[in-house]
Amino acid sequence: MQESQGGTIGIVAHTFMYEPLRDEECDRQAVNRTLAFVVDWLLNPLVFGEYPAEMRSILGNQLPRFSPKEKSLLRGSLDFIGINNYGALYAKDCFLSTCPLNSSRPIRGFAETTGMRDGIPIGGQTGIPRFFVVPEGMEKIVDYIKIKYHNMPMYITENGYSSPLNQSTTMHDTLHDFKRIEYHKAYLAALLKAIRKGADVRGYMIWSLFDSFEWNSGYNISFGLYYVDRNTLERIPKLSAQWFSDFLKSTSDSNIKDLSEKNRSNYVTTAVV
């Protein structure tokens, strides 16, 4: 069927990149285990026909064992890997260190993840507590998947900035979303670094085109390039929509530079208000 249709088959992994909470070997190992339990548990079987060794060593027979036929069917069954990535977190070892009970569990790889170190966040905060702004995390997770999975074709299937919506949020603030523009510029610049190092990234998709219903957060946060009036259903472009349109029309890398005050002024004068 695939041969006759000429299609490709892939899967999407929801990813974070992780950094050791402390400059200690046990936390560096916790990073490896966390990546195995969050990213590799999904991709390893479909590329190599087996769960990652880090999971097998901790969970043992709690993990299903594939038959030779199942391994053959699974191995190499992907044509591409989709990557959802919004940020990065710290990882802390829970084998040798004291951790909350919920983190000191085999199913968590005996690792605790957090966005805070000594009360300081790993990156800028957004409308979702664990979605910190850490652009270099995009470069690192793409590098990781490139090396681990033999540079299989990759697509960034989700990446976006969440801004909170509350009673004090004005329409002016909603439409003049400079932080979203700065976010995408920074993440695209990080992605470009990974591509220049050889990563076979074939597409980048923003989450999301329109403000939408965001699961537990409902309509209280906004990811969209377009604002949606819930009463009239009118779609109103934000500055980020204009910027992204300009970016897609650009043929140079200059559009991924930091947003200057001059650029801010240009976008303000042409904003939909």
Automatic annotation (TrEMBL):
PANTHER family: BETA-GLUCOSIDASE 18-LIKE ISOFORM X1 (PTHR10353:SF175), GLYCOSYL HYDROLASE (PTHR10353). GO terms for molecular function: beta-glucosidase activity. GO terms for biological process: carbohydrate metabolic process. This is Beta-glucosidase. Pfam families: Glyco_hydro_1. Belongs to the glycosyl hydrolase 1 family. Coiled coil: none annotated. InterPro entries: GH, Glyco_hydro_1.
